[in-house]
Amino acid sequence: MPNPLKPSKNAVIYSMVDGEPYVGIPPTKPVTVPVRLYARDSVTEAPTFELEKVGERTYLISANGYKTQDQDGLLVGSIEGEAQRWYIEYAEHHDAYLITKENERGVGWIAPADNNEGQIRIGNLIMGPSFPPFYPSIQLFRFRYPPE
């Protein structure tokens, strides 16, 4: 069953690495904060993001006023600067999504492979030579929405 993507004010994003940790922003309030994974058993409520559709498969992703951005190869949330435009592509074989830069489709979100609580990196994505293409779980994300 496909995991449908849709604009939302409170989408839950989670990684496909072991344990399927949530993507979230710390509750601190500096200007820039890391966007990182949170083990499911470490939070009482799943962090949520606002997905604003700005083009075909292109979204702005923010949380609590923090706009997600690539900052020196790390995914951060910032109250300053422009929001990064993210191209979100469905990988049907995995029933999950790749989240890439709008104008650099080979560069996108990469979850830490060694634990469920590290910061998400922005880097070159790997695609396995198969049809349909194979992607490592560290590059795959799913979205969940509250009941309507």
TrEMBL record:
Name a GO molecular-function annotation.
serine-type endopeptidase inhibitor activity
Protein name (database record):
Uncharacterized protein
Query: What Gene3D superfamilies does this protein map onto?
Result: 2.80.10.50
Q: Which organism is it from?
A: Pisolithus microcarpus 441
What the entry lists under InterPro entries is as follows: Inhibitor_I66
User: Pfam families in the record, alphabetically?
Assistant: Inhibitor_I66 (PF16850)
